[in-house]
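Predict the 3D structure for this chain.
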Amino acid sequence: MHFVQTLMFLLLPAGIIWLTHHQRWAAKIGVIVLCYLAGLLAGNTGLITRGALPVQQGVTEAAIALALPMLLFSLDIRQWRRVAGKAMLSMLFATTAVMSLASGLFFLFRGQGADSAANFAAMSVGVYTGGTPNLAAIKAGLDIPHSEYILFHSLDTLVGASYLLAMLTLGVPLFRRLLVRPARVQALPGDHGHHADEDDFRPLLQKGNLAQLLKITGLSGAVLTAALALAQLAESLFALQGNAALVIVLLTTFGIVLSLNSRVRGLQLAYRCGMYLIYVFCFAVASMASLEELRQVDASIAIFLFATIAGSLLLHALLCRLAGVDSDTFMVTSVAAVASPPCVPMMARALGNPGTILSGMTTGIIGYALGNYLGISLGMLLRSL
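Done. Predicted structure below.
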């Protein structure tokens, strides 16, 4: 049964890609959005049962872990020098915006319980400057009740997915209109100046490309193995609690280092392989969201999280406009902060600008490092007021 379910997760994105090539309405919506919608539908109509949770978790973790190095293999790190300063500035603005909104909302909501409002503000800062791995550390650091932790995590699934879908669709034309346009949209990795169709996944099925696909998969598998081994070693040596963030850091680092090799950078199908796995990830992770459970959540808490994301997004955009940060850099750094680094390739794909992946991944990793410190510090400060 698990084999059949795994096969469904792996093959359904291929059907969605085929649909976008044959139906105009599907092409307008886009593969990523359709994968999310299909996952929500499958997970909430009984097509995928709750017993499939181990398969869902395994597929999402494996897909994103293998995809990240593949997407980085064909990037030219020298291009990042053009946007490094702006990307760091944008990440600073994103962090400032989340800290400001979470603190402001604390004073509005503390009438319902000062400690609870402080806890939600702290978790918001940790998650929306880094990612989900920061949650457990902040929970332990502030001794947050398990019920509040679970409530926040469930709500974040819905609110975070809504934010990401909005950025992938409406956000692209909106912020490119409001902010400075990027100097140019960079060519796709391996494009070599030709206007290749990045949505054409047929080369992945051609026998002549089998050797290259095996190299890409083997190389990505080796990177994942090394990252897991080093993370496990670090966990045992330094008694770390959870190493998901460290694994992401190592995967990104190894992917960037290998991209310096011209032969690795010449693996033209690496980007397509990575993007297909991102589509698998989108479908699988969306199928895990339970709309039924979220209906029972206190509306005021949902408003707190929604206001934190929406308000910080607008403040972040305003600061970027004043500082002259371009729209694409703003969007990838926003997604890196709010939705975490693994979601950066989706945003870069929606922008048609793969060169922004490195900026998003780098700033997102910085967010991982800062998220725990900022979240715990803010929580302790607000509790003392």
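Residues 146-178 form the longest helix (33 residues).
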